[in-house]
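Co-fold these.
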Amino acid sequence: MGTIKDRYAIVGVGESERSRKSGTTPLHLALDAANAAIKDAGLKATDIDGFMNYNEGDSCTSHQLATYLGVRPKYVKDIQGGGASTEMLIADAAALIEAGQLNTVLIYRSLNGSSGTRVGRGYDPDMLQGALAGGSFVIPYGSASPSQWFGMYAMRHMHETGTTKEHLGHVCLSFYEHAQRNPKAFLHGKPLTMENYLATPDISSPFNIHDSCLELDEGNALIVTSAENAKNCTSRPVYIMGMSARQCHPHAHYWNDIDQVASDYVAKELYENAGVTPEDIDVAAIYDCFSWVVLRQLEAYGFAKRGEAGEFVAQGNLKMGGKLPTNTAGGMLSEGYTHGMNNAIEIVRQLRHDYEGTDRQVEHCKIGICTGWAGPDIAGAMILRN
Amino acid sequence: MTYQKPIPLKDQDNQAYWDAADKHELVLQKCNDCGTFSQPPGPTCANCGSANVGWEKMGNDVQATVYSYVVSYRPFLPGFQDELPTIIALAQLDRVPEVKIMGNILNCDEQDVQIGMPVQMTWVDITEDRALPQWQPVTN
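Predicted complex below.
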């Protein structure tokens, strides 16, 4: 992947309305997001020859989306997946363009995540036992929600490092603060104080509702093409410096080995490919399905030493003006939730300086990191520049 | 009153574990080539890929310490709504520290659970012919 440095770009981003109850289908949401991204890039729908999406059986197919955009695409791809799939599909798109198969690829995630299928709920328990590796060793004990699985990781990590509940709270406060500057954030107008945070009862210790990502109805899309094709777009391209598309934890049974996470393995390859170090990063999109996941990734990606991520966050470093402004639209904790794609869209906008002249813009930012977390067992990440 | 919670599904890879559990015993999958224990068990050794795996009996006196836990205040599965909060723990076996086994900690107030606390395995009869391994605090 090292050879692709600066040769591929994200040239368009877009999203649908976000709500608790869209009253429409994921296909409609995907069309809204795709049309917004195509317009943003200054392209015609027929310029797109590849369509890809990731889903959990809760979306429309790439073929449907292309059809209703009036496109007869050369290539469609629908994968089962959640976090880290944005990075994986961008890498796949670059590879297919590199191989001469495609020119321009639109990648989307669309779901009625609130009014439709909700993560971790509504599944038949026996189906879950069979679907999860080793599922019969967790489901009979009532453990079926990501909040419970990641809570188990968080509790051990906090025990070992001295990271506190207040540290988790600082992650939430930082992102909620960003959401107050983003009129499109779902929790815009709902600021959070540490007092309120600490007074909120837990759902699955150590997490309360603020530590958990939003479940919303929403579609997101982004467009990937070569640096050469990017010249035909009206948007400012954001170039991919490096990627580690999807790297796995050495043991798939993540409820047994809870000390290491796949992000630990992604970081090395990522920085080597991009030719930069953590000190070079100006702005970040860190996958934030839960607050603790951010702290653990700050360690994995070299922004804080083990055990020091909590203090790093408590010092305000994730906020505007901090060392690493992160999830500047509010993140999945307070803006919206599309398994990571909304964070990827925001970092593109930051690097394009779309918010120039407002208090939402990270000043003079040139290089950004975007991380995905498909669970402790699988991760992917990319480094982007303007 | 029939048992409302999910009952462990037996399959070809885990049958020995759950058959032993029904008799109130613990068995663990072990690789005959590299000596690694696998929990949860699988079709081959998750360390070296060898299909030469067998089962080692651990008996019914299983001591462990809590490695991590969550206290769950919401029922995400049927049957748990009547017993909230639920303590879900990973316990590290004293005899085989590389193995951690998930279970609920029974007879324990959620204020009292902590990492490092000693627990012992106990088996709860959940149907006429099935039993579920669980953890309970060690009492002196």
